[in-house]
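Bug report (template v2)

What were you trying to do?
Predict the complex of my protein with B1N.

What happened?
Run completed; filing so the output is reviewed.

Input:
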Amino acid sequence: MATPMKSMETPTELYDDERTALTKEAFKRAFLDNLLYVQGKFPALASQNDYYQALAYAVRDRLLQRWISTAAAYTKQGSRTVAYFSAEFLMGPHLGNNLINLGIYEQVREAISELGLDFDTLLRQEDEPGLGNGGLGRLAACFIDSMATLEIPSLGYGIRYEFGIFHQEIVDGWQTERTDKWLRFGNPWEILRPEWAVEVKLGGHTEQYRDEQERLRIRWVPGKVVVGVPYDTPILGFRNNTANTLRLWKAEAPESFDFSTFNRGDYGGAVRQKVWSETLSKVLYPNDEQIQGKTLRLEQQYFFVSASLQDMMRIMRVQKLPLERFHEKFAVQLNDTHPAIAVAELMRLLVDDHVMPWEQAWDITCKTFAYTNHTLLPEALECWPLELFKSVLPRHLDLIYEINVRFLDEVRIRFYGDEARLARLSLIDEHGERYVRMAHLACVGSHTINGVAELHSELLKQDVLRDFYELWPHKFGNKTNGVTPRRWMALSNPRLSDLISEAIGDSWLKNLDELQKLEPFAQDAAFRQRWREIKLANKVDFAAFVKERNGINIDPASLFDVQVKRIHEYKRQHLNILHVIALYHRLRSDPNADFQPRTFIFGGKAAPAYHMAKLIIKLINSVADVVDRDPAVKDRLKVVFLQNFNVSNGQRVYPAAELSEQISTAGKEASGTGNMKFSMNGALTIGTMDGANIEIRQEVGAENFFLFGLTAEQVAQTKGRGYRPLEHMTAELQEVISLINSGFFSRGDVQMFRALTDGLLWHDPYLVFADFESYSECQLQVSQAYRDVDHWTRMSILNSARSGKFSSDRTIREYCADIWRAPSVPVRLLSQEDVKV
Ligand code: B1N
């Protein structure tokens, strides 16, 4: 009798058939099959969510063939793999994106409506995986999309948080937080891989011992052990056969541990151990650019880094590669310092577990890692108190000391007698309480260090990492961020995408520089007319969404002026709202003033413990409320705060925006990526010379960008001279502050916004007052420009046409060429020919 699986060859007929065909009929059949056999429902009794799940599984079936083919191609080629280490992956909903990448969006929409269902309702059923705070997490998502599109073998490694970024609700104008139960109805996109679970140690102490060969070695006796279980999500390339992997770790209790405690009769202890283990991957820290020196955070970081490095070593074993070639097989990118402990962990695995000589292990380590810095803000630089660090990672502290001693020896020789420099460069901060400096660990253990926009990379070299730059100038470079045009144009703005494809063909989605071909159309009146109609249609859709969410009417004929991003003082949402109050004051003082009607749209989350940011949200909502109720400004001024800004809401707002607010204090926003999404979708920018704004302005042309405010250099000078905000007080600004302090926006409560207004009057660390006049003046120019409809449309088209640089495909090509040196590996779908029996 024949054995069922007599050959290890892949039996492709299993999936290369009708079951996974991309035709409409096959898809309908698969949808109904999944509803019955996976969901256990028949159509008449199924909920919208059941339909969504069935649809998602039908799509997933079609991904798996690509996934297996990709795995086969990579195994055969044995080529270099990029491991992108990130504590955050802000993916957004998968369904629509996967349909776009497979090229079956329209067929599936038709198939679903032929079954009598509403496709858009089903798309909205997906609870988006919000496993990130903001730009840094979303960048990781755009990067893995681009790596798959460029056919780069890659793995995204991170944490499968049970609760992602909190759900924001506005209650009486204040932000309140609700837990994000995104896994409540199951996640059809992930596949559990229990067979690849790994153990991760934490706490305890170290001891010396002699092994069988009488070698002196170090043993780490952990205080506790957790198991990391990988959950894999396929990441499709755009219209190719590549499906890479996002591998996220869930923390579980090791059974053996449970049982030993249990057997001693300590049931409570066993349960506590289990509960403790699972807290490791329970919740994402909701702080953007503000570290919280919590033990659990360090444990989370170490947990996913150790699990990932062990997983990579398993892959090497399977492929029969010696560990000496680790750096040839893998390029690891550290997404900020959150995974920087990887430098010490790889050393531990090589030196302690695999008994490799220190020098060789260090050589491999430095050839493996590269580090991306994402912020200059001092409050975001990770430093762990030594005692805390030691209690979680005793062995790593010793390894870091050893790395430090060898590193400082090198510095001592290079900079003879410069003791101060040694103290500045040390991996340990010894001023007062001692800290481990994670950015220093990342710099020492990486072959390349980059910032995320030209200005940011320059400032890194001048400021935060100056000493490292002086030591190793060759390690430094810039990689300006980008975003994926698949999600941020094709998926979110189908009307505009169709018009563009009609005009220049559709290869721009793979090569965004081709948008240049749109430039001549800026001179074509008929094209401009269609461009405007599309923006208007997007605004009408968005107005309906606002009506549904906020219960207020906004006029699609008014200028849609948008600031959506995390709420932070350096991003200066308060500059924006102060200006809105100034406009309100002008309208009330002179009701007949000539005024361009505007709708100011805000959105974004504040870290739950960031009181000033929450107060800014309250002020925005309070102004929104007053303005909405005041008949004197009706139809001319509206303010909307959009609740719970996330990826899904972003997909609605960027296509409808006409003015993009990028108004951070110069030198503070490392890059920004929302700025790119707006510009691609035809919004004009009002912005400072900060982050990637500078490069956007350079690309689109100064005449198509509204610039205001101090430059980074002027900011530094102003601060250096001793900045006094009151010196920048104007009559109008005085009126604005008085109006707030009078209780006008707080039902007579004169105290409510005092922390905010006093902060501005006496400190104003982000120079709101210094930039206020310039901003106001620039906003006047915006209003004037908007009235020349044809001119505005031309500028809008040119913004889009010249946004090619800001595709994350360009960014990833640069990382590949300059840092990873990972060649692409095209994937051929497995078919009958591959089956050799
Ligand atoms: O990273 C983005 C940039 O475009 C933004 O300008 C930058 O602000 C953002 C600690 C951060 N920098 N640092 C963080 C996030 C979470 C956390 O716990 C820091 N986010 C950024 C992409 O380069």
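What did the reviewer find?
The domain at 77-90+120-381 is CATH 3.40.50.2000 (Rossmann fold). The first strand starts at residue 81 and ends at 85.
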